[in-house]
Design a protein that fits this description.
The structure holds two protein chains of two kinds.
Chain A lengths: L10 H32 L1 H4 L1 H6 L2 H4 L5 E2 L6 E2 L2 H32 L2 H16 L2 H20 L7 H25 L3 H9 L4 H12 L1 H17 L2 H6 L17 H9 L7 H36 L4
Helix pairs in contact in A: 1-14, 5-8, 5-11, 6-8, 7-8, 8-11, 9-10, 11-14, 13-14
Chain B lengths: L6 E12 L2 E12 L3 E5 L6 H8 L9 E9 L2 E2 L7 H7 E4 L10 H12 L5 H14 L3 H4 L12 H14 L4 E5 L7 H14 L4 E5 L3 H7 L2 E6 L2 E7 H6 L4 H7 L5
Parallel strand pairs in B: 3-8, 3-9, 6-7, 7-8
Antiparallel strand pairs in B: 1-2, 1-4, 4-5, 9-10
The chains are: A mainly alpha, B alpha/beta.
The complex binds adenosine-5'-triphosphate (ATP) and magnesium ion.
């Protein structure tokens, strides 16, 4: 008998394979096209003489004012970059301990029945539309926190950061929970067999073994936080001021684009500036993702050696 | 105190259930100090279960229930108020598959000592690590790569690091669940030599599927079948003139 396959023997296989390949390809192509579009619309700040009278790349990083609609518009990125950093940092400080702690608890200590409550609850949290969360932060949480701490300014970076934290807890939690649950049972048995307590086992064996996954989760959460728009638009007070005071109103890169792009004069310097800002955002999230991958690989290599 | 003073572990009428199924049935067995006791028997007969009962490793499994007596130095380890963490420091364990932590070789061996929390000085800890690795006959192979991940070692080396890790805690009893089953003959020989030397200091219980291995390393042999102890005697007796027909059939390889 010959081993030669008939011409149409694997026709169906090939068809399915190609269909899958096509969907993957179309996703990649559309991301690339979006990038291309943003790139194209932002480039006039480099070459268009009229635009460059108002907005130049050097100008974006000079001065400390973002005043696009004054008589002499000023487009310094610094206040909104600082705004994004402040809000993201606060969100991370809040969300990472909560998400990692919850993941560790539900993967290691929670009895099965409690675990079956925690996981769906976090999924529900993930399903809350960000506009609803923003609304909640804008109306209720801001007032509550202001009364509690006697803040002067109701909508500020802390308020927005906490609300933003809530939006990134679910993804960080889920990824961490996966990472922790996939730590082999044999590590736990080894640790307990050596007379470690369950807490020591969780802290000194399970958590470090899951570290590659956890750090990737944290970085991806950070990328999410920087890119998230609606919550910060509603809860941060939207004043693009350059200040390190976290109790001041602030404005992020995303909120700036969302708030201003709707009313901007098409093709104006302001318009192209907003696209350049978008390009920056694109680059930052891209870099964070790259770092996240390479950190994952590096930590895996360090922990598990070159063999794996 | 039950049994003679030389008996370290005294098991009497011991039963263990996974949910409703009884995996160990009325086991009675006295394991003497500083000897190697082998547990043999067909797959699924309860060897691992019995071994893991001795340091209460089965506690980790849902739905496990026990009754009957299991005493370590006369103390019932299943009574209320037993400090399981302390028990496991006294009764160390080496698993069937090498399971080093994804940490450096040094950290693997130092782990139990660190967790014990008696805040050893770095130099003392270095000594403990070196001594344990030497005891486990792996020092020469890893001395200049102590800071490398233990996962990079070969399976046989990993297993010896795991043994070193167990020894570092200075247990009194060591439980080994088929410690050489994943290893080649050379690595196996090394582990067997090791066991031979270790019994000067430790009480060892070893599960094995390998009859020759049981005959070579152990002083006593327990033969289990379907959760019951069929025969328990001096190894020389078991392998030359077993009293039970089933034992004879098993060790001569007529079944199992
Ligand atoms: N976690 C568990 N849950 C339920 N039943 C179990 C569990 N572990 C083992 N058993 C059952 O208990 C019996 C004894 O298992 P055990 O692992 O002790 O056998 P063993 O003698 O070590 O076998 P092997 O030589 O294959 O390792 C088997 O019938 C097995 O199916
Ligand atoms: Mg077994």
């Amino acid at each position: 008998m010959s081993l030669k396959a008939g011409r149409f023997k694997y026709f169906k296989e090939e068809l399915i394979e190609n269909a899958i390949r096509l969907t993957a390809l179309s996703a990649i192509v559309s991301i690339f096209l979006i990038f291309l579009f943003v790139f194209k619309e932002s480039m006039p700040v480099l070459y268009d003489q009229v635009v460059r009278q108002e907005a130049t790349v050097a100008g974006f990083f000079r001065g400390l004012d973002w005043q696009p609609v004054s008589e002499y518009p000023r487009y310094s990125f610094w206040p909104i970059i600082l705004g994004s950093l402040k809000v993201t940092l606060i969100a991370m400080l809040f969300a990472v301990p909560v998400a990692v702690g919850a993941a560790l608890f539900s993967a290691e200590f929670a009895p099965a029945r409690l675990k079956e409550v925690i996981k769906p609850m976090v999924e529900v949290l993930a399903g809350i539309p960000s506009v609803v969360l923003g609304f909640f932060a804008l109306i209720f949480m801001a007032t509550f926190l202001q009364r509690l701490f006697g803040w002067h300014i109701r909508l500020n970076a802390v308020n927005a950061g906490l609300a933003l934290g809530v939006t990134i807890i679910p993804p960080i939690y889920s990824l961490c929970e996966d990472a922790i649950s996939s730590v082999p049972r044999s590590f736990r048995e080894a640790a307990l067999g050596l007379g470690a307590t369950p807490w020591q086992t969780a802290l000194h064996v399970v958590l470090p073994a899951a570290l590659p996954g956890i750090s990737a989760a944290v970085l991806l959460g950070m990328g999410r936080a920087i890119g998230e728009t609606m919550v910060v638009l509603m809860a941060a007070g939207n004043a693009p001021q350059f200040t390190f005071d976290i109790l001041h109103s602030t404005r992020t890169i995303t909120a700036t684009i969302a708030a201003e792009l709707g009313e901007v004069v098409f093709g104006s310097a302001h318009y192209h500036t907003l696209f350049f800002l978008g390009l920056l955002l694109f680059a930052v999230t891209f870099v964070i993702n790259l770092v996240s991958w390479s950190l994952f690989d590096r930590l895996m290599a360090k922990l598990y050696g070159a063999r794996n | 105190m039950a049994g003679s003073t030389a008996d370290r572990i005294d098991i009497t009428g011991f039963n263990l259930y996974y949910h409703a199924t009884r995996a160990l049935e009325d086991i009675t067995l006295a394991i003497p100090e500083r000897e190697v006791t082998a547990i043999i028997g067909p797959s699924g007969c309860g060897k691992s279960t019995l071994l893991r009962a001795i340091n209460r490793m089965n506690d980790l499994i849902d739905g496990v229930r026990t009754d009957g007596g299991l005493r370590l130095d006369g103390e019932d380890i299943y009574q209320r108020g037993i400090d399981v963490v302390e028990l496991r420091r006294k009764v160390g364990m080496v698993f069937q598959r090498p399971n080093p932590f994804p940490k450096s070789i040094y950290e693997n061996v130092a782990f139990g000592v660190r967790m014990g929390g008696n805040g050893l000085l770095k130099t003392r800890l270095d000594e403990v690590v070196e001594r344990s690795l030497k005891e486990a006959a792996i020092w020469d192979e890893v001395r200049d790569r102590l800071q490398r991940s233990a996962m990079e070692l070969s399976g046989g080396q990993q297993q010896r690091v795991c043994i070193a890790r167990a020894l570092a805690v200075e247990p009194e009893v060591i439980l080994m669940d088929e410690p050489a089953s994943a290893l080649d003959p050379l690595a196996t020989a090394k582990i067997e030599e090791l066991i031979f030397r270790l019994k000067e200091k430790y009480t060892i219980v070893i599960v094995t599927h390998n009859m020759q291995q049981a005959a070579r390393v152990s002083d006593r042999t327990a033969f289990l079948m379907l959760g019951r102890l069929i025969e328990y005697d001096k190894t020389s007796k078991i392998f030359t003139s077993p009293s039970n027909k089933l034992t004879e059939e098993y060790i001569t390889g007529r079944f199992g």
